[in-house]
Specification:
The complex is a heterotrimer of chains A (145), B (217) and C (644). Chain A is built from eight helices and no strands. Chain A has 145 residues and is mainly alpha-helical. In chain A, helix 3 crosses helix 4 and helix 3 crosses helix 6. Chain B is mainly beta and 217 residues long. Chain B has two domains: 73 residues, Immunoglobulin-like; 88 residues, Sandwich (Immunoglobulin-like). The model of chain C has no long low-confidence stretch (mean pLDDT 85). Classes of the chains: A mainly alpha (145), B mainly beta (217), C alpha+beta (644). Chains A and B meet through helix 4 of A and loops of B.
Chain lengths: 145, 217, 644
């Protein structure tokens, strides 16, 4: 009985330590690098914005906005958030989206477009999920309550 | 510098009362060679030989409504203040690189603007860094006597003291290649001045760059 | 199978050669037709490729400039850059331009102000105040928001793209330049697999090649004619360079001042034909296989024809030589025309053999001609009753006459007579039944019956008489005996058939009528006439004139028969003779009616006419006897013949 418990504890510790080491190893390379660097990020950001602007369900808030600067700022932002060598020079998300009255549906719509663009860019499942996890908390700042 | 409007008001009225007795008018008409009226043209008259009277501070307002500057064309005397209230719920980043006034205001939506002093005469073109198609033209002149032509191409310049004038035509976009018209005004004269101007359509609003319409497929 | 085989192999060879040559011809014709079609198809495909290539090429240049413009928007919309531009901060501007140039891999970038003056230029960092060399590009960009053109600068060709810096109206222009070099040409070639050559021409100077995907060798080859290309807007066609055929198309890329820049697209016909190479190999292979099969097949067929044919020829030769040969069973078993031929030949051979046997048979029996006729008509030789005209022709007193001659001479004499007689009989198509020692027995109407048998028999008899007289004259001159011939003819129903055994057959006739004919012959001596015929014969040949000789009762027979002598056709007999004949007939009629006196008187009157002496004497003797001893009531006017 006691040996059984001891065995399972041992197995658990072993598994945990392996996972820990893997995470450690993962932490060696930045998400920025694992996403593929600036070129890849610029690519999927470009596609995401294009998809979002063309989709009538998500394009409203981008009406007449200069997309060139917008994409540049977003790339900068993601670069910084994924520990890349950039400094985001734009304004905080809350400020940027103030007055735009973004709805939840529009937000999730854009997230879908981002997923699509990430897929087309060949970003792996791991980095993709990591990125989405980082960006998720912005919903609070973006979507109007 | 400028004085707050409230402080100047009695002074302003007095001056007005004094000059009311000597108020001449200029009725300006701007048309194309074909006879069509030219709107949004600026007409201003410079008194020759006399110095520019100091006038109380005037203020103009150029609002941002629905991602547009309203009005498109404004005229103000040098020294006037320009308000830029943002009536949209979204932000605008207003700037100008014109030599007459270079400035930028990163506005917040809903927050009232700080006025901009228009100190030098010349043409000031406003734009928004976020919305490329937003444009406004401000002509800053060094005379208090000016007007903007309406839909019928007419502008009324009032309160002119008697004297000799040079009357200039200005069209937004900077094409001002017209010599001024000379005019002598008596105390209560009401003169007509006609300008012929082969204008291009509008003044130009820059086309929306590369963004496909929001009504997508 | 050498010598006899040689003849058959000639036909065999001819068949084989014919089929092989025919197939070869067809294959060649087909091959060349297909090759021509392939070439036409390849050529038109290449031309299409070139046309498409031109469209792709133009599109690529367009897209290229589009991409560059989009990439540069990042720069021209950057607020900091715009600020630097408006404040004419040259250092910042240069730094930004340089950065961007590196990013988009341009050759150079420059900023040009609204007065078309170059404010900053990454390619000429220190110079200021120069006019932009291509103000037309600025003007175009002002209209269309960007412009793109190809320009030659100092011997190099560039693609130049101009975009405005907007704030929000244009405050400046950014111009980017990209070298068009061999690398660019290679990129283009990778997309549409066409060789590309960029060529520029200034005024009347010779055209220059700026960039190309061609080998240096090929480059030299095209130098010769590119000058001509410059004068024509778009030129396409086929050209041979260094022995290789190319499809070409030239397209003008840009034109300004006195300069022209164009691209020459080309593709080798060999490339175009390559997909068909394997097809041609397959065709050749099929042709070879086809030829081989046709060779062996035709050899087999030829053999199947020529072997039986030469076997049949062999057999025919044997048959011609008289040997009957049976055609090989194998040849007959063949289920085709050869088999039919073999079977037919075999039947023919058998038939011929049969006929030969028959002819042999009949030849012994009848004259060869009749035998031939018999064979042809397939007549039955078995016994049958039929009406036949029988003729006996004897040489009178031959035996006695020949006592004066040697046996040899007798035979010779006999044969001379027989020859004459036989000749006439043959001529009148009678069948010689037998030689009766000193005469001939002939049949008219057996084995083949004809309507005019009796007529021919009588005419033959008259002719024999004439010929014999001629022979008699001849013999007289030779001092030889020259007897006369007596002929008896009777027409009646007889039995005709073969008498004897299988190995020795005699075709002949039997019956009373036959004996009667012999009697008639013996009566010719009595009445001293050459020919005696019976009543039936006379009735069957009405066209002649006859003298009734008598009425005779043959031994053993109850009924008397009238006998006649044929004299000839009426027109051959003169009036006097006819009158005499008439008187004679009246006389014997009177005799038969027992008017002795009358008869005697008439007979006496004509007794001295030629040919009448003997017959009149006979009747006068009858009369003398009957005058003394009249006949009884039963007398029918006939004379009883007791002797043979």
């Amino acid at each position: 009985m006691a040996t059984k418990t001891l065995h399972s504890c041992f197995k658990f510790l072993l598994a945990a330590s392996i996972l820990c080491c893997e995470a450690q190893a993962a932490a060696e390379t930045t998400l920025y690098e694992r996403l593929g660097g600036e070129k890849v990020i610029a690519g999927f950001v470009d596609e995401t914005i294009e998809l979002t602007v063309r989709d009538p369900k998500t394009g409203r808030s981008f009406d007449k906005v200069n997309l060139v600067n917008l994409k540049k700022k977003i790339v900068e932002h993601i670069c910084e958030l994924s520990h890349g060598p950039c400094k985001y020079s734009g304004d905080p998300m809350k400020l940027v989206h103030k007055g735009l009255d973004i709805q939840e549906g529009e937000f999730y719509g854009m997230v879908e477009h981002l997923r699509t663009a990430l897929g087309h860019a060949g970003v792996g499942e791991g980095p993709k999920n990591e990125l989405l996890k980082i960006l998720a908390p912005m919903k609070r700042d973006i979507v109007t309550k | 510098m400028f004085l707050p409007l409230r402080c100047a008001s009695p002074f302003f009225v007095l001056l007005f009362a004094c000059s009311a007795a000597q108020a001449a008018k200029i009725n300006a008409q701007v048309s194309t060679p074909a006879g069509e009226p030219v709107t949004n043209a600026g007409v201003y008259a410079k008194l020759i030989g006399a110095s520019v009277p100091t006038v109380p501070i005037r203020e103009i307002s150029i609002e941002q409504i629905n991602k547009e500057f309203v009005p498109l064309v404004s005229i103000a005397q040098a020294g006037a203040l320009m308000n830029l209230p943002n009536r949209d719920s979204i932000r605008h980043h207003v700037y100008s690189f014109s030599p007459a006034k270079t400035f930028e205001i990163k506005l917040y939506s809903g927050v009232p603007s700080k006025p901009v002093l228009l100190d030098k005469p010349g043409e000031v073109v406003l734009g928004c860094n976020i919305h490329d198609n937003m444009i406004a033209y401000v002509l800053v002149v060094d005379t208090p006597y000016f007007g903007k032509t309406d839909v019928k191409g007419r502008a009324l310049l009032e309160g002119l003291p008697a004297g000799e004038y040079e009357v200039y035509l200005w069209y937004p976009g900077g094409s001002m290649a017209q010599p001024p018209q000379k005019l002598k005004l008596g105390a209560n004269d009401s003169s007509d001045v006609k300008f012929n101007f082969a204008s291009r359509l509008l003044p130009q609003r820059p086309a929306t760059p590369a963004t496909p319409p929001a009504t997508g497929k | 199978m050498i010598l006899p085989g040689l003849r058959s192999s000639k036909l065999e060879n001819r068949i084989v050669v014919f089929f092989v040559v025919l197939l070869l011809f067809v294959q060649l014709a087909g091959f060349f037709a297909i090759r021509y079609a392939i070439e036409q198809s390849a050529r038109s495909n290449l031309r299409e490729d070139l046309n498409v290539g031109v469209r792709v090429f133009k599109r690529m240049l367009e897209q290229n400039s589009q991409q560059l413009v989009e990439a540069t928007a990042v720069l021209t919309y950057d607020f900091g850059f715009r600020e630097a531009v408006s404040s004419q901060d040259r250092d910042t501007i240069l730094s930004a331009l340089g950065n961007h140039r590196d990013r988009i891999k341009a050759a150079g970038m420059a900023l040009i102000n609204l007065q078309n003056v170059v404010v900053a230029d990454t390619l000429a960092v220190d110079s200021t105040g120069k006019q932009f060399a291509f103000p037309e590009l600025i003007a175009a960009a002002a209209d269309m928001r960007r412009s793109s053109a190809i320009r030659m600068i100092d011997g190099t060709v560039y693609q130049i793209v101009v975009v405005p810096v907007l704030a929000p109206l244009p405050i400046s222009w950014v111009a980017m330049s990209f070298v068009i070099d061999d690398a660019v040409a290679s990129d283009l070639k990778r997309i549409n697999s066409l060789d590309v050559t960029f060529i520029g021409k200034t005024g009347n100077s010779p055209a220059e090649i700026f960039a190309t995907t061609l080998s240096p060798f090929m480059r030299e080859q095209i130098r010769g004619f590119i000058d001509n290309l410059a004068n024509q807007p778009e030129m396409g066609g086929t050209r041979t360079l260094a022995g290789e055929e190319f499809e070409m198309l030239s397209v003008t890329i840009d034109r300004y001042d006195n300069k022209r820049i164009f691209a020459l697209l080309q593709r080798s016909m060999r490339d175009g034909l390559r997909p068909y190479d394997s097809l041609q190999v397959v065709l050749l292979f099929l042709a070879a296989v086809g030829l081989t099969i046709s060779l062996f097949g035709s050899m087999r067929i030829a053999r199947r024809i020529s072997r039986p044919v030469s076997a049949l020829a062999e057999a025919a030769r044997a048959v011609a030589a008289g040997r009957h040969v049976s055609v090989s069973a194998e040849a007959m078993r063949q289920n085709d025309e050869i088999g039919e031929l073999a079977t037919a030949f075999d039947n023919m051979s058998r038939g011929l053999a049969e006929r030969d046997r028959m002819r042999d048979l009949l030849g012994k029996v009848a004259s060869p001609e009749v035998a031939e006729q018999l064979l042809r008509q397939n007549i039955e030789l078995g016994g049958e009753e039929r009406q036949v005209t029988v003729m006996f022709a004897d040489i009178r007193d031959f035996t006695e006459l020949c006592e004066t001659l040697s046996p040899h001479d007798s035979l010779m004499l006999l044969n001379r007579y027989l020859e004459r007689i036989s000749g006439v009989i043959d001529h009148y198509e009678g069948v010689i039944d037998k030689y009766t020692g000193d005469g001939v027995m002939a049949l008219f109407g057996a084995p083949i019956a004809r309507a005019d048998d009796p007529e021919r028999a009588i005419l033959a008899a008259l002719e024999i008489n004439r010929r014999v007289r001629e022979l008699g004259q001849e013999l007289a001159r030779e001092g030889l005996p020259h007897p006369l011939v007596g002929i008896g003819i009777n027409t009646s129903r007889v039995i005709a058939g073969n008498i004897g055994t299988a190995s020795r057959l005699n075709y002949t006739v039997l019956g009373d009528g036959v004996n009667l004919a012999a009697r008639f012959e013996s009566l010719t001596k009595r009445y001293q006439v050459p020919v005696v015929v019976g009543r039936e014969t006379r009735e069957k040949v009405p066209g002649l004139v006859y003298r009734e000789l008598d009425k005779v009762k043959v031994k053993g027979k109850k009924v008397a028969v009238r006998i006649f002598e044929p004299l000839g056709r009426e027109h051959e007999i003169d009036a006097v003779a006819l009158a005499t004949l008439h008187t004679y007939h009246e006389a014997i009629e009177a005799y038969r009616q027992r008017r002795w006196q009358q008869a005697a008187a008439s007979l006496a009157a004509i007794r001295d006419q030629p040919g009448y002496h003997r017959v009149c004497e006979i009747y006068l003797e009858y009369i003398r006897q009957f005058e003394s001893a009249p006949p009884d009531q039963t007398w029918d006017g006939s004379f009883a013949l007791y002797e043979k």
